[in-house]
Amino acid sequence: MHLLKDAELIKTVALPAAGATAYTDTLDLLQGPYQEAQFEVELSLPALPAVADGKSVSVRLEDSEDGVNFSAIPALAFFKVTGSGGLGSDESIRKLRLPSDTRQYLRASVVVDAAGGNNTGQKFTLALVF
Question: How far apart are CA 4 and CA 110, in angstroms?
Answer without folding.
Answer: 24
